[in-house]
Design brief:
It catalyses: a uridine in RNA = a pseudouridine in RNA. Its EC number is 5.4.99.-. By secondary structure, the protein is an alpha+beta fold. It folds into three domains: 65 residues, Structural Genomics Hypothetical 15.5 Kd Protein In mrcA-pckA Intergenic Region, Chain A (Roll), CATH 3.10.290.10; 96 residues, Pseudouridine synthase, CATH 3.30.2350.10; 144 residues, Pseudouridine synthase. It has seven helices and 15 strands. Strands 5, 6, 7, 8, 9, 12, 13, 14 and 15 form a nine-stranded mixed sheet that branches. The chain has a four-stranded antiparallel sheet with strand order 1-4-2-3. A two-stranded antiparallel ribbon has the order 10-11. A hairpin with a 3-residue loop joins strand 5 and strand 6. The longest helix is centred in the middle third of the chain and has 12 residues. The termini are far apart.
Amino acid sequence: MSGDLRVVLVPDGLAGERVDAAMARMFGLSRTRAAELIADGQVALDGATVAKSDRVGAGAMLEVTIPSVVDPLEVVPEIVEGIGIIHDDDDIVVIDKPVGVAVHPSPGWKGPTVVGHLAGAGFRIATSGASERQGIVQRLDVGTSGVMVICKSETAYSRLKNAFRRREIDKIYHALVQGHPDPHTGTVDAPIARHPRSDWKFAVRADGRPSVTHYETLEAHRFASLLEIHLETGRTHQIRVHMSALKHPCVGDLTYGADPTLARRAGVERQWLHAVRLGFEHPGSGEYVSYSSPYPDDLAQALEVIRDAH
């Protein structure tokens, strides 16, 4: 493990002290941190490993390796298998994001990220925004695949950020939901806030932020319906929360109440939700542009299972 190796001789004044107490005094560490380093095998006394309750003698050589702390928000450049480049110019790069990839680093996420891939692939993206979210004007959940845009120029960043804020971007998703929404075409206008008991989930709540989802049924099958969804707002988990609130959760979305038996039957291990199209005024040319992404294999196969179910 990389880290900072420090070697000191124990002064007379600390002779007889426990190792963890001596380390706390000499290195300015807490006793708890000192004990962790000892337990991790990062501490040696005269070349031998120690227990935290061992005592130090005057003049003994204490070697401590303090591991370098990894910043959870640091963008690590790495090529991510499966990210497709749909379009690339001086202002924007449009990608096809696979499932299992986060848009940017965040505490607790150790997997691949879109910004890490773009850095690894040599893309220069806009420097606006927090360092781990530079150039990012929209997000897709880790478990949601599909088309998204990242800004390369500062002009593109400010123009698209404002366009998203003013709801001028056409964000179109396809979702395979359980059952048959009634009416077949409709709008869900229901505020969304964090779930009162599970902070990784969201829920429809009166004190939430305004959230509007428009849907229409493209195909109705025995167990599920394929919907086309236009997002007016862009809250975290919005489609998943709204469909669950209608009692028609996305197939495979166990977090929001989907039937595990149907998920197994369809062979999906995540929510059946895909960002199929993104349309907007190009921040450079001003022309309307539209980009699309085909269904990934797992969702395409699940849809065939549902279509064939009698």
